[in-house]
Amino acid sequence: MREIDKGDETASPYAGYDVLAKWNTPSFDDRTRGVLERRLTEISPRRFLAPDAFALLEAVVERLAPPLPGLSPRLLALWIDAHLYENLGEGFRAVAAPPWPQSWRIGLGAIDGEARRLFDAPFVALGADEKDATLQAIQQGATDAALWRGLDAASFFSDTLLKTIAGLAYAHPLAWNDIGFGGPASPRGYVRLGFDARDPWEARERR
Description:
single chain; 207 residues; mainly alpha
């Protein structure tokens, strides 16, 4: 993921929208403000992954995360590390899949192994095009099964890696402006739920 400047923000169909401008309105209550405050200010230290594995994760996030202002690859990588440390997965997994934290350790190690197999260098040392080619090979399942130790490479890419990165990125309040999200349903609630229907306090897409 790359930082983008204010000039890039004008490309958003919701340019100029700021969901946090609702901070002291009926859209947010004290509980909601508390959750948002923690997401905006608290940055957990690295606790789960070893330094080299964390550097690899940060490099992967840089290539896969959406380009959202204020959300650096390191911030998202630390958030993933915190979820792994606290074992905050989705609460379910395929029958043959290892536990969520173990899947990440195996998957990250395999990503580095694929980079070395394809380009004879660790993933973090590759150029942008080579990193993307490595990740594309994993997405397509064009991998060395021995590196994955029983983990399905394509499934790990789509169902674990990409899903987690995108999910956490758009769970951050700084990302909500980019998609015109009006914030949590509590306490105000959403009334107009039909296709292309918006409540008065939601963002309006620029035409």
